[in-house]
Hints:
Layout: H1 5-16, E1 27-38, H2 41-44, E2 53-59, E3 62-69, E4 72-79, E5 84-91, E6 94-100, H3 102-109, E7 114-124, E8 127-135, E9 143-148, E10 165-173, E11 176-187, E12 202-203, H4 206-213
Amino acid sequence: MKTAVKPLLTFFLFVFSSFLFAQSDFEGIVKYGINYVNMPEEMKAYQAMLPQEVTVTIKGNKSRLEQSQMMGKNVVISDMDNKSGFIEMDMAGQKLRMAVNQDEFEKADEKAPLIDYFDESKTILGYPCKKAIMKDNEGNGIMTVYYTEKISNNAQKEFAGLKGFPLQYSLNQQNMEMEITATDIKKQAVSDEVFEKTAGYNEITQEELQKMMMGGGQ
């Protein structure tokens, strides 16, 4: 089973690079379903193990992203006021925690996307949504987004500049294509406890994690 850990860690970091959160006036929980439209051949053997849902909890300057799959649970915590956070990965019994330092947050700030807006629209969970296509500042990494203006648009750093909150978007990068769609939105009070570290995890550096994914680690 441990042979599956490295490709799944790579996949996990790829998926959650699209969820970078900043301060928002929204407080509550948004659940997204994941549809795997296309993936590399080397990942198809692990498709049954991949997560089907991402749960995002937002409270002001803090956010928690959580996904569970057959082999464990993975969590990303971010505090945009302090520009700090961490990632907890439970993969086949390996419980690892990696800090996300201030440099990583500042790099995200520098990557303002290019956005084109279109007249196409659809309704998601009762929210009217409009279409946009986003690219990085070099014109790469195309992402199709359906966003609503009914929810604050400053919750996700990856969608900086977007006129609304993304309720559906597609990712197509490194031969992997996914469609991520909101399945539930709840505005509710959120406890600060959900943003705290979980006991029982071993601290690991980014360099150590990279070695693991290259086959030279735990």
